[in-house]
Amino acid sequence: MLENNNPVDIASINEKIERESAFVDILSSEMRKVIVGQKHMVERLLIGLLGQGHILLEGVPGLAKTLAINTLAQAVHGSFSRIQFTPDLLPADVIGTLIYNMKLNDFSIKKGPIFANFVLADEINRAPAKVQSALLEAMQEKQVTIGEETFILDRPFLVMATQNPVEQEGTYPLPEAQVDRFMLKTVIKYPEMADEQMIIRANLKGSFEKVNPVVSLEQIARAQQAVREVYMDEKIEKYILDIVFATRFPEKYRLENLKPLINFGASPRGSINLATAAKCYAFIKRRGYVVPEDVRAVVHDVLRHRIGITYEAEAENVTSEDIINKIVNEIEVP
After folding, report:
1. Does 165 map to a domain?
2. 70 inside domain
């Protein structure tokens, strides 16, 4: 993080970010060939990719969640794999296993679908905790151990997990500690009527354009490095800390009425991810510095799964979204 006593050349940072982020528009327009509307989801996917984080997408079936990450993988020239989570799935089905080779009289390693740049974990809450843990460990450590051998996963490595908020029968909800591993939790809304009309027309005609690889993995790696250089002023750091600390100690921020509604607040991982996501958002907007609007733009996606609500809050129909809104409206903007 940049120290106060270091002179910061905002102009040169801006110039570099302007240059390195040129591909963002190209990548977005390539994805728009197939993904109609859903700008919010596409932006969040890019934030996850640039911030080297992972995304949990929540939305009813049929909102192009699977299609979005598949399209991103095609446009970035990366490898893609899809894991359909089911109650009978085993950890070996995700990370791989040792297979006995009779000819060689030895064990050989068969790698699982986790070995890809873009991994779609479809309906992650359909599989038991043991399988969820295998995936989440790979997400956290960026490595997998099969037998006695450890493999470093390819970079970039982006996991997009989906869950259906409607159907709860036969599901295994992700524990809070595991949900915390996701940088963002994005709630997907229904498309606008005009967008849905375009979706109907394109599907009936079968006229979706072919997605071409327009960005190399090297460009993504350079962009991930450039994101770290986006300037964040100490006032913005303080703003992020105030928001996060207000989820833990609301009474210190004139928000005493939230105290009985919050079971636990965001962890330090929440602070780190909020700062990283704000930098990524500034990068996407082709800016070399973070402004308070960047923090406000990503705060719901970063914190909605990191605030535990009490039974009292549930009884009053208060969600973590409502709590974030109250905090953001109360905390003074620098």
Report:
1. yes
2. yes
Residue 253 sits in the same domain as residue 183: no
Inter-residue contact 277 to 302 (CB < 8 Å): yes
SS3 157: coil
Look at residue 290 in the predicted model and tell me its pLDDT: 92
Contact 126, 170 (CB under 8 A): yes
Residue 84 · residue 190 · CB < 8 Å: no
Residue 185 has a CB neighbour count (10 Å cut-off) of: 23
Mean pLDDT in order along the chain per 10 residues (334 residues): 56 82 84 79 89 87 77 85 88 86 80 89 85 83 84 87 71 76 87 82 75 85 89 92 92 88 90 94 90 93 90 88 90 85
Q: Are both 258 and 197 inside the same structural domain?
A: no
- Count of the separate structural domains present in the chain: 2
**Tally of CA atoms within 13 A in the half-sphere of 34 that contains its CB:** 21
Query: What is the CATH number for 170?
Result: 3.40.50.300
Residue ending a domain, among 189, 219, 249, is 219
- Which helix (H) or strand (E) segment holds residue 12: the answer is helix 10-20
The C-alpha atoms of residue 162 and residue 18 are separated, in whole angstroms, by 32
Identify the domain containing residue 65 by its residue range: 24-219
Q: SS3 of 152, please?
A: strand
Task: Supply the angle between the helices 268-284 and 217-229 in degrees, to the nearest 10.
Answer: 110
Instruction: Say which residues have a Cβ less than 8 Å from residue 277's Cβ, sequence separation at least 6.
Output: 47, 51, 53, 183, 184, 298, 301, 302
